[in-house]
From TrEMBL:
PROSITE patterns: IG_LIKE, PEROXIDASE_3, VWFC_1, VWFC_2. GO terms for biological process: response to oxidative stress. It comes from Liparis tanakae (Tanaka's snailfish). It is found in: Secreted. This is Peroxidasin. Keywords: Disulfide bond, Glycoprotein, Heme, Immunoglobulin domain, Iron, Metal-binding, Oxidoreductase, Secreted, Signal.
Length: 1174
């Protein structure tokens, strides 16, 4: 319960609420708790109806002029208690004519379609809450007030008789008659009497009951054929009770209001600038609480064989685009990689810059493609008398299909199209590929890395193609969109934090770690605009790829720094955006790239491509291990260091002499808690791999690696869905998802754009402003806790300040941040993100809003409709999901209309569903994504056949608690569930009491296991060769095997041999001789393989981090702080631990490890001083 003086808990456990308010409504539950456990009552619901209020207008109609033949809406909206009914008259209170062209919208507006001359005149809007027409099953209030002396007594009758003896009828203390759950027999006339000794006054009201009726189409859509470049209207209307809401889907994705689509109040769908990409099946969906109906049609788009205005500019534009894009990218690369990051923007760009060459080339091609179209548009605009500014430009009239295909070829789009070969069925039946391909054998690219995000709703761009909402001064529903920074400072940033009374900070940390297994958007490759190469932060214009976050007037950050904007660049587009065919015959709306696999497959540990996986594997030892870094005093290794040029972790040599760690995801160094989690899971792989090798010494390194990877991925799935997700979604959300029903190959597991860009960023509201660091007694370590902004890109603090254990204890030993609608993101994230001296820090909340607009994410209201919530026409319509009136008032001041609210801030403002940490719309979006991830993954750990029943039983023993016990530096005391807050000391137990996985269920049971478990041997006669660009080195075996094939002498792998006997009804001696010959050759090959393995195992040398060979027993200095030694083929490194400096800004002397104070440094530099040097 929140801290509120109106809420009083009495001694007998009764909850008393004084002065009830709208914010008090919700679900309540009584819980009794002691050391032995807890017990809960059933849930009860408190509903708030409010005091009766006379109707008042929120929106009043305005004088309007309209051309004959057009359509118009006269807006009118009223509020009151009960909610008033709106009606219209024309002229001298004449009822409106019975005309199908004239309808009253759900919000109260008057819509007139195809206006004619006779429609002109004076219209009046009325709002009344006396006589009421109410839907069956709802609650109705009839207020009645009277004054006089003596004070009159109020009495209610129905049809001249007393009220029925029914508990649904209640006369409140205010004399209001309330009838709950109204039914058809409640219809009739009710009379309120005010009686006193002086006399009696009566007034009557009429109650009408609306019967519930399922939707019925009155005008269903029909198939249409239209030429490219035209606009088309598709009619649809329906009736029902309540009046059904109409939505449209195209090819299974819901259509939203944008520069491409317009949905009229009566349900017509208008498609603007139709292109080939707009052809397909459209569905009109009529839905009300009783049910829904669907009517579909097919839109066929024909492309006339004529030249277009922009065809003559293709050649010059593509050349200019290649030149300007490449120049901007090269300038950015020099600025980022030739020195240290100088600003938070550069730090962010360096942090997000793609490392994989294939990713860079794909993003480059996408930028060239869009820049070419922009240049062609500019050339065409120069010949026009009106500047279209890109919002009304018709892109399907710009360039003919033939030249679109030319642009796709010359930009590099078609050169980087991926073709995948899943014919190696035996491998793909057993193990995942690193890039996610061939998980779904019917749709090999579903869920793969470097593919476009999926969408629940069609994208919303102001020009229907790529222009974000808010990129110019265009009005949206009559209002300008607020600046993202203004939204952040007005309602998101908070200095006040409410601790979570149930869950620890580990709840947040697992969410971030999981997110880095699911999605990572490819950022723009340039920090400079393509048009002239100027830095985005210097010009502050919306010029690709720049999309800066402007400061509102009087922003204190602007006043301190003098900057006009905050750094922000757009995400890279998918090459050709949504194109799926080989020929580019239409302009597709901009889509963004997910560079990770969408599956929960531990790709944040193992990487998302062959290149990444080989970089982090220890291929030299052939023991299936991941590379390890320096060994701590506890005897456990840290992650290896990343090689290459100076990175974001070395932005200040005096503070951070340690480079970034290398992991499966490049964001592992973003903050210390995340780095600790990466360290734990890298150790978990090596622990599992080591145990598998002990149990199966005949397995080769590739088999051990893939089996350990499979186990680690299954543990992450189990922890996420059985331990973490139920705490986020609560009982209601998990019930909505339902139990696992098996693999469904028709489910696309691709990450939804709204999930990655807004919904899953709800974890930002769970972040504490401080990372706590606790010792074995759960007390602060000598170096103390650390502010979040000082924990970014600081791996040196793990090396020099106690390892990962203090951070882990600070995650599971400290309460997390509670989600409160008035306390969204702490100011460490909104005011000091990646802060540097004399530079403008970033604002995570503003960036989230801006990123949503960049990605064409539809407004919040469209997702409400998708999730079967009401379409909010007024801010009062949000009262059930956003109960705090102050929050709704802030939204109204910022956005003007609910139709404009960005998705991220609205999701964060929703009140939590009881028992969860999310609101209703956010629960819908998260549940949709996580159900897809489970149902569409062929390697889901519970899918029969992925693991044996005995192995699955063991995997269900997995817990994050056990992983921390096994892989922390020295974690010995922990609670059973590290996501739940525990009290010291009785809430913590020994790690010995935590269940663990018995890996003996993976042991081979065979008499002669020497050939079993060899990744390239007889039992693996399945390794077909995949395409060169999308296969892995260890997977590249022969495509086919012929009988009696000789064994290769020079390769690492042995050609597989299939032993068969010739079909004959009379076996001859020759058959037996052939069999013996085959067997002898097989034995010879196996002996040679054993000799090679023995020779490899007898090797005693090591390889250092620079691939130089070191002899057994050799010691060397890796850097000034690190000493390494080769022992039995294993490199062990030790790091000198530096004591805390006694000054605020110590310096680091050349050749020394530990920083010293400036006074001491000056002494050491003097000639003749001890230890002095030049």
């Amino acid at each position: 319960m929140r801290d509120d003086s109106r809420l009083n808990l009495l001694e007998d456990g009764t909850l008393m609420i004084q002065d009830t308010r709208e914010t008090d409504q919700g679900v309540y539950q009584c819980m009794a708790k002691n050391v032995a456990g807890e017990v809960k009552t059933s849930q009860v619901t408190l509903r708030y109806f409010g005091a009766p209020l006379r109707p008042s207008f929120v929106i009043q109609p305005q004088n309007t002029e309209v051309l004959v033949g057009e359509s118009v809406t006269l807006e009118c909206s009223a509020t009151g208690q009960p909610h008033p009914r709106v009606s219209w008259t024309k002229g001298d209170r004449t009822p409106l004519p019975n005309d199908a062209r004239i309808t009253i919208t759900p919000s109260g507006g008057l819509y007139i379609q195809n206006v004619d001359q006779a429609d002109g005149g004076q219209y009046t809007c009325f709002a009344s809450n006396n006589d009421q027409s109410i839907l069956e099953g709802h609650t109705v209030d009839f207020p009645c007030e009277a004054s006089g002396y003596p004070k009159p007594v109020i009495a209610w009758t129905r049809g001249g008789s007393p009220l029925p003896l029914d508990r649904r009828y209640v006369v409140l203390a205010s004399s209001t008659l309330r009838i709950t759950r109204v039914a058809a027999h409640d219809e009739g006339q009710y009379e309120c009497q005010a009686v006193s000794p002086v006399g009696t006054v009566r007034t009557n009201v009429q109650l009408s009951i609306q019967q519930r009726v399922t939707p019925v189409f009155t005008n269903a859509p029909r198939d249409l054929t239209v030429e490219s470049g035209q606009d088309v209207q598709i009619p649809c209307s329906a009736q029902g009770q309540p009046q059904p809401a109409l939505t449209w889907n195209k090819d299974g994705v819901q259509v939203t209001e944008s520069g491409k689509f317009h949905i009229s109040p009566e349900g017509y769908l208008e498609v603007r600038d139709v292109g080939s990409a707009d052809g397909g099946r459209y569905e009109c969906v009529a839905r009300n609480p009783i049910g829904y109906q669907v009517a579909s049609m097919v839109l066929t788009v024909t492309v006339p064989a004529i030249s277009r205005q922009g065809d003559t500019f293709v050649s010059t534009s593509i050349e200019q685009a290649i030149r300007t894009v490449d120049s901007a990218i090269e300038s950015t690369r020099r600025r980022l990689f030739d020195g240290q990051p100088r600003t938070p923007g550069e730090l962010l760009a360096l942090f997000r810059y793609p490392r994989d060459p294939y990713t860079v080339e794909q993003a480059r091609a996408g930028e060239i493609f869009e820049q070419t179209l922009l240049l062609i548009q500019n050339h065409v605009n120069q010949g026009l008398t009106v500047d279209t500014n890109g919002t009304a430009f018709r892109y399907n009239d710009l360039v003919s299909p033939h030249f679109l295909d030319v642009i796709a070829n010359l930009s590099g789009c078609t050169a980087h199209r991926r073709f995948n070969n899943c014919s190696d069925i035996c491998f793909h039946q057993k193990y995942r590929s690193h890039d996610g391909t061939c998980n779904n054998l019917q749709h090999p690219m579903w869920g793969a890395s470097l593919t476009a995000f999926e969408r629940l709703l069609k994208s919303v761009y102001d020009n229907g193609f790529n222009l974000p909402r808010g990129a110019n001064e265009q009005l949206h529903n009559g209002y300008r969109l607020p600046l993202p920074r203004l939204v952040s400072t007005s309602m998101i940033g908070t200095e006040t934090i409410t601790p979570d009374d149930r869950y620890t900070h580990m709840l947040m940390q697992w969410g971030q770690f999981l997110d880095h297994d699911l999605d990572s958007t490819v950022a723009a490759l340039s920090q400079s605009r393509f048009s002239d190469g100027q830095l985005c932060t210097q010009v502050c214009t919306n010029d690709p790829p720049c999309f800066p976050i402007h400061f509102p007037p009087n922003d204190p950050r602007q006043q301190r720094s003098g900057a006009r904007c905050m750094f922000f660049v757009r995400s890279s587009p998918v090459c050709g955006s949504g194109m799926t065919s080989l020929l580019m015959n239409s302009v597709y709306p901009r889509e963004q790239i997910n560079q990770l696999t969408s599956y929960i497959d531990a790709s944040n540990v193992y990487g998302n491509s062959r290149h990444e996986s080989e970089e982090i594997r220890d291929l030299a030892s052939q023991r299936g291990l991941l590379r390890q870094g320096i060994i701590q005093r506890t005897g456990k290794p840290l992650l290896p260091f990343a090689a290459g040029p100076p990175t974001e972790c070395m932005r200040d040599e005096n503070e951070s002499p340690i480079p970034c760690f290398l992991a499966g995801d490049h964001r592992a160094n973003e903050q210390l808690g995340l780095t600790a989690m990466h360290t734990v899971w890298f150790r978990e792989h090596n622990r599992v791999a080591t145990e598998l090798l002990r149990l199966n010494p005949h397995w080769d390194g590739d088999t051990i690696y893939h089996e350990a990877r499979k186990i680690v991925g299954a543990q992450m799935q189990h922890i996420t869905y059985r331990h973490w997700l139920p705490k986020i979604l609560g009982e209601a959300g998990m019930k909505w998802m339902g139990p696992y029903a098996g693999y469904n190959p028709n489910v696309n597991t691709g990450i939804l754009n709204a999930f990655a860009t807004a919904a899953f960023r709800f974890g930002h509201t769970l972040i504490n402003p401080i990372l706590y660091r606790l010792d074995e007694d759960f007390q602060p370590i000598p170096q103390g806790h650390i502010s979040l902004h000082r924990a970014f890109f600081s791996p040196f603090r793990i090396v020099n300040e106690g390892g990962i254990d203090p951070l882990l204890r600070g995650l599971f030993g400290v309460a997390g941040k509670m989600r409160v609608s008035t306390q969204m993101l702490n100011t460490e994230l909104t005011e000091r993100l990646f802060s540097m001296v004399h530079a403008v820090a970033l604002d995570l909340a503003a960036m989230n809003i801006q990123r949503g607009r960049d990605h064409g994410i539809p407004p919040y209201n469209d997702y409400r409709v998708f999730c079967n919530l009401t379409s909010a026409q007024t801010f009062d319509d949000l009262r059930n999901e956003i109960k705090n009136p102050n929050v709704r008032e802030k939204l109204q001041r910022l956005y003007g209309t609910p139709l404009n609210i960005d998705l991220f801030p609205a999701l964060m403002a929703e009140d939590l569903v009881p028992g969860s940490r999310v609101g209703p719309t956010l629960m819908c979006l998260l549940g949709t994504q996580f159900k897809r991830l489970q149902d569409g993954d062929r390697f889901w750990y519970e899918n029969p056949g992925v693991f044996s029943p005995a192995q699955l039983t063991q995997l269900k023993q997995a817990s994050l608690t056990r992983v921390l016990c096994d892989n922390g530096d020295n974690i010995t005391r922990v609670q059973q569930d590290v996501f739940k807050v525990a009290e010291l000391p009785h809430g913590y137990g020994s790690c010995d009491d935590v269940p663990q996985i018995d890996l003996r269920m993976w042991q081979d049971c065979c008499e002669d296991c020497r050939t079993k478990g060899q990744f390239n041997a007889l039992s693996y006669h399945f390794r077909g060769r995949r395409s060169a660009e999308h296969s892995y080195k260890e997977e590249g075996l022969a495509n086919s095997v012929q009988e009696s094939s000789p064994v290769k002498e020079d390769g690492q792998s042995i050609v597989n041999v299939t032993l068969t006997s010739k079909k004959s009804t009379e076996p001859s001696i020759n058959d037996f001789q052939d069999f013996v010959s085959d067997m002898q050759k097989t034995i010879t090959g196996l002996r040679k393989q054993i000799k090679r393995l023995e020779a490899r195992l007898s090797k005693t040398a090591c390889s250092d981090s620079e691939a130089r060979e070191r002899t057994d027993g050799e010691r060397w200095k890796q850097d000034s702080c690190t000493t390494c030694e080769c022992t039995d083929t294993q490199v062990t490194c030790f790091v000198e631990s530096c004591p805390p400096a006694e000054c605020k800004r110590p310096v680091k002397l050349k050749g020394s490890c530990c920083p010293v104070c400036r006074e001491q440094a000056d002494v050491e530099k003097q000639p003749g001083a001890d230890g002095g040097h030049e």
